[in-house]
Amino acid sequence: MRIAAVHGPNLNLLGRREPEVYGRHTLSDVNAALADEAQGVGAGVECFQSNHEGELVDFIQQAAARVDGFVVNAGAYTHTSIALRDALAAVARPYVEVHISNVFARERFRHRSYLAGNAVGVISGFGVASYRLGLRALVEHLREKEIGEQAR
Description:
With 152 residues, this protein is of the alpha/beta class. It has helices spanning 19-22, 27-40, 53-63, 82-91, 129-151, and strands at residues 2-7, 44-49, 69-73, 95-99, 121-124.
């Protein structure tokens, strides 16, 4: 089983950007934690970050051929990008939306997600652990789906 982690804009600044909101872990720390978590549940993970919406769309479209699902922190694009929503819908792979901060305890504009409606689930507010929780939940979802298909 293979999972892709998609990191949106400004996540490359983790550890320096508003540490009171996002903590002191870097994106490299997050990717290492995802790799450890994936190994622990018998999966592989590839990670991609971009500040550019089109690059994220391109990555999702290309990665869909080699992954079973996505863990997505689209950053600010969560609240603005119909293009990312459509890319995730078009590739027909399950995904979990994750956020480091509790977006519902923040500014009102962060309460709306264009991605959540099609996501398997949303995990928000657990710091960088949100990524690990999202990966674990996605792997469990994929395994349950596989078991259901084998039972037919």
